[in-house]
Design a protein that fits this description.
mainly alpha, 71 residues, elongated, single chain
Length: 71
């Protein structure tokens, strides 16, 4: 796998993780109240949100490392 392909896949992963992190915070009627105090799409918010943002940050760091390597 080339560096460009890996960098593109990591960028797509970053966008996916950030999007999913935002989706977990969307208000939604369900049986459980999240720790944020309201009904969210994901009852594990804000912990799932923080986990997804951590994964996005990790992917960003790996992408920066891949791009800094010489050809």
């Amino acid at each position: 796998m080339s560096r460009q392909t890996l960098s593109t896949l990591l960028l797509a992963g970053i966008f996916l993780f950030v999007t999913l992190a935002l989706v977990t915070l969307i208000p939604h009627e369900n049986k459980m109240v999240s720790d944020l105090g309201y009904h969210t799409l994901c009852p594990f918010a804000p912990y799932s949100t923080l986990s997804l943002l951590f994964l996005a940050g990790l992917a960003w760091g790996v992408r920066q490392h891949v791009e800094s390597q010489q050809a």
